[in-house]
């Protein structure tokens, strides 16, 4: 008996020593993580090609390489590993070659990396390649001047604009900016490339409409029919795209295509909301696509709709299923569609029978996306992430079961870091609604100690915190400095049904505010290791809005951080680019609905501002323009509220450069440290 007691003591001691050899994650660690990108399965199902991106904090640059690994997770080897970024690998249908992107063009090599050839040589570049089943043609997109019949025309127009000393812009329509760039006259067009004669044709020649559409589309917004005679694609043909979410599905008969001439296309979708991601069934009978019902709403439920190619009949396959579909793929026998969807704090994978409508969950936990299926239909491949692991490639039986991890690109670095998996709790929100929150404990957690709280508010507002490894708002990195992190999913969050998601629109500071504050109070009351004297809050985009709203409605936090947050609903509406968003969320333009704007605009409550605030904003953020931060900072300063403005002239709605990100994290932690009691 004494022997076993000693053995247990020894094991516990060794475990403690092993744990102490680990360390808390740093911002440098996070940026040293390799990021698994797109991947593809070979036609024989035996090999996976995937891209992985590495970042260098010193040079402030990134590089993407392509790797091969057997489908069972063995024999990893480099396909393209150079100082030039290579990504987006796609096996040729015969399995003998791999096409990929490099230097803005499409290249192709043997599967051993030899005989490297450049397929496209367009001045305007080529990206987003899709093979035809016979391997003779590819689809790609390129940004061109709609009226240019040649690449020389595109080049001459660019060069003339560059040489012109006058840089003024004459603007005659809305959506003159999009997210982080000025749109200009160029539009994204869909091209067809013939590998035999190396010729290409612009399938949307002369069109001012874009493929894929400006927003709300997907990575699968165009595809070949199985016989290669037809192409389906997504496009928005409304006159003012700034106020429209009406993306539609069209088809083109390739035998009607003529070079440098508009191609006739046929509309097959009917919804006034966003339809996207057309995918042909392998037997050629159907086109499946995702569809939102309501016009002007970017976060409506995305149903899976089937278009019968023979009859033209549309069938809503998921009408009675309260899930919003992400990516969709067919099983090789055309009997099932696999899709991912938000599911509480997870992004789960589902499988639906296209005849019976029976839906079943295949993979529930963590964040799962980027689906692919083996040629025999027996194995599903996908990317999985969780709060303690960036994306890796996994496989699972197509009927469900235990998932198998295939890649381990960050294994060595992760083995050095001490992180705790997420926990969740439920609290009661406004009108008794159940609200789920994520809780992350700090590394080397001691339940007998008191820890400060960081309360995180997500953006969207129709987003959700999930079990993921976020490379900007990383819950583990927030916890790494000795904080307990609480990240609630209040009204507006996805994964809890469409009604729950809808209940934030036109009510930005209402029920959701109660949901959030109740979740915060619940955590402090029920988790004794949270120090109620040291609580902090942070949020971005809508989360930044809510921080600004909190500023005028509570003084419960020691200090707060508002990143790219909305401050004045009227000026936000007048300067943002996606106008459908404020028109839906605030109930129309402010001159028609000023009451709602005034009711929920944080700038109307400046007189109550007291809490120290760090403001962060990017100069190229056109979604929530920089004036929002400037107005907010001015108000805080004039009210003599302790405040600091961290401005990134070279960033967008997100901080994406490595050294800027390091400054961001250091500034946030310094701000919280300054205000600890």
Describe this structure as you would to a colleague.
- This protein has 677 residues and is α+β, with helices and mostly antiparallel strands.
- It has three domains: 32-119; 122-163 and 171-247 and 254-274, no CATH class; 418-674, Rossmann fold (3-Layer(aba) Sandwich).
- Helix content is 19%, strand content 33%.
- The protein has 13 helices and 38 strands.
- The strands form nine sheets. It has an eight-stranded mixed β-sheet with strand order 31-32-34-33-35-36-37-38, with helices on both faces. The chain has a four-stranded antiparallel β-sheet with strand order 1-2-3-4, with no helix packed on it. Strands 5-6-7-8 form a four-stranded antiparallel β-sheet, with no helix packed on it.
- A hairpin with a 5-residue loop joins strand 21 (303-308) and strand 22.
- It is globular, with a radius of gyration of 26 Å.
- The model is unreliable at 1-17 (pLDDT under 50).
The CATH topology of the largest domain corresponds to Rossmann fold
User: What is the CATH superfamily classification of the largest domain?
Assistant: Alpha/Beta hydrolase fold, catalytic domain
Strand content: 25-35%
Number of domains: 3
Chain-averaged pLDDT: 96
Which architecture of the largest domain would the CATH scheme give at its second level? Answer: 3-Layer(aba) Sandwich
Radius of gyration over C-alpha positions, nearest whole angstrom: 26 Å
What is the general shape?
globular
CATH level 1 class label of the largest domain: Alpha Beta
Number of helices: 13
Helix content: 10-25%
Low-confidence stretches: 1-17
Number of strands: 38
Instruction: Tell me the structural class.
Output: alpha+beta
End-to-end distance, in Å?
A: 50 Å
Strand order of the largest sheet: 31-32-34-33-35-36-37-38
Instruction: Give the oligomeric state of the chains in this entry, treating copies of one chain as homo and distinct chains as hetero.
Output: single chain
Largest sheet, strands/sense/barrel: 8 strands, mixed
């Amino acid at each position: 008996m004494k022997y076993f007691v000693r053995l247990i003591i020894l094991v516990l001691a060794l475990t403690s020593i092993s744990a102490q050899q680990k360390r808390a994650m740093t911002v440098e660690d996070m940026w040293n993580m390799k990021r698994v990108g797109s991947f593809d399965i070979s036609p024989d199902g035996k090999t996976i090609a995937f891209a992985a991106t590495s970042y260098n904090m010193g040079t402030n640059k990134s590089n993407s390489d392509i790797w091969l690994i057997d489908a069972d997770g063995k024999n990893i080897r480099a396909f393209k590993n150079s100082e030039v970024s290579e990504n987006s690998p796609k096996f040729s249908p015969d399995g003998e070659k791999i096409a990929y992107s490099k230097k803005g063009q499409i290249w192709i090599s043997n599967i051993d990396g030899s005989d490297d050839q450049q397929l496209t040589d367009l001045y305007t570049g080529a990206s987003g390649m899709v093979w035809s089943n016979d391997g003779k043609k590819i689809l790609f997109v390129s940004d061109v001047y709609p009226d240019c019949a040649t690449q020389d025309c595109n080049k001459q127009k660019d060069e003339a604009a560059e040489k012109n000393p006058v840089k003024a812009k004459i603007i005659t329509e809305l959506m003159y900016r999009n997210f982080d760039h000025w749109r200009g006259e160029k539009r994204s067009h869909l091209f067809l490339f013939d590998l035999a004669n190396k010729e290409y044709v612009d399938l949307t020649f002369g069109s001012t409409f874009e493929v894929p559409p400006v927003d709300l589309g997907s990575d699968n917004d165009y595809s070949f029919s199985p016989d290669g005679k037809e192409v389906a694609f997504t496009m928005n043909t409304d006159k003012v795209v700034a106020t429209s979410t009406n993306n539609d599905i069209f088809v083109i008969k390739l035998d009607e295509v003529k070079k440098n001439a508009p191609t006739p296309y046929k509309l097959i979708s009917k919804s006034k909301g966003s339809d996207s991601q057309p995918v042909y069934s392998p037997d050629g009978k159907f086109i499946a696509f995702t569809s939102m019902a309501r016009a002007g709403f970017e976060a409506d439920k995305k149903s899976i709709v089937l278009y019968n190619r023979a009859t033209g009949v549309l069938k809503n396959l998921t009408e009675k299923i309260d899930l919003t579909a992400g990516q969709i793929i067919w099983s090789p026998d055309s009997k099932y569609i696999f899709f991912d969807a938000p599911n509480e704090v997870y992004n789960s994978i589902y499988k639906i029978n296209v005849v019976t409508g029976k839906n079943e969950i295949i993979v529930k936990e963590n964040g799962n996306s980027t689906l692919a299926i083996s040629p025999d239909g027996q194995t599903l491949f996908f990317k999985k992430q969780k709060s303690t692991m960036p994306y890796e490639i996994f496989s699972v039986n197509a009927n469900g079961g235990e998932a198998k991890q295939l890649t381990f690109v960050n294994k060595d670095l992760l083995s050095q870091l001490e992180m705790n998996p997420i926990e969740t709790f439920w609290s009661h929100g406004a009108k008794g609604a159940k609200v789920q929150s994520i809780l992350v404990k700090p590394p080397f957690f001691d339940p007998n100690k008191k820890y400060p709280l960081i309360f995180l508010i997500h953006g969207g507002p129709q987003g959700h915190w999930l079990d993921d490894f976020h490379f900007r708002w990383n819950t583990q990195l927030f916890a790494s400095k000795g904080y307990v992190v609480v990240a609630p999913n209040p009204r507006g969050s996805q994964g809890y049904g469409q009604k729950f998601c809808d209940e934030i629109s036109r009510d930005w500071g209402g029920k959701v505010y109660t949901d959030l504050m109740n979740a915060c109070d619940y955590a402090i009351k029920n988790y004794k290791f949270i120090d109620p004297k040291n609580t902090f809050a942070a949020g971005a985009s809508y989360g930044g809005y809510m921080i600004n709203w909190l500023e005028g409605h509570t003084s419960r936090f020691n200090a707060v951080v508002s990143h790219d947050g909305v401050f004045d609903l009227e000026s936000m509406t007048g300067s943002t680019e996606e106008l459908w968003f404020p028109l839906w969320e605030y109930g129309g333009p402010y001159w028609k609905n000023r009451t709602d704007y005034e009711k929920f605009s944080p700038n109307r409550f400046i007189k109550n501002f007291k809490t120290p605030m760090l403001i962060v904003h990017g100069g190229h953020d056109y979604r929530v323009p920089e004036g929002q931060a400037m107005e907010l900072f001015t108000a805080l300063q004039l009210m003599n509220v302790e405040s600091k403005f961290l401005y990134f002239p070279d960033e967008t709605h997100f901080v994406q450069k490595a050294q800027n990100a390091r400054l961001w994290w250091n500034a946030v932690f310094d701000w919280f440290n300054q205000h600890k009691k």
